[in-house]
Amino acid sequence: MRHPHPRTTRRRVVGALTAGLLCTAGLAAPAVAASAADSAPGSVTPALTDGLALTPPMGFNNWNSTHCRAEFNESMVKGIADLFADKGLKDAGYQYVNLDDCWALPSRDANGKLVPDPVRFPNGIKAVADYVHSKGLKLGIYTSAGTKTCNSAGFPGALGHEYSDAQQFADWGVDYLKYDNCNNQGVDAKLRYTTMRDALKATGRPIVYSICEWGQNKPWEWASDVGHLWRTTGDISDNWGSMLSILKKNLPLAPYAGPGHWNDPDMLEVGNGGMTDTEYRTHFSLWSVMAAPLLIGSDLRRASDATFDILGNKEVIAVDQDPLGKQGTVVSSEGGRWVVTKEMEDGSRAVALFNETGSPQRIATTAQAVGLPEAPAYTLRDLWQHRSYNTAGTVSATVPAHGTVLVRVFADRHWAKNPPAVELGLEGSPLVEAGRPATLTTTVTDLGRTPATRVSVSLTGPEGWTVRAQPPTRALVVPTGRALRTKWTVTASPGTPTGSYDLTLKTSYRSPSGVRVDGTLPLTASVVVPPPAGTSHLGDLPWLSATNGYGPVERNTSNGESAAGDGHPIALGGVVYAKGLGVHAESSVDYYTGKACEAVTADVGVDDEKGTKGTVAFEIWADGTKVASTGVLTNAEPAHPITADVTGALVIRLVVTDGGDGIDSDHADWADARLSC
Question: Is the pLDDT of residue 119 over 90?
Answer without folding.
Answer: yes
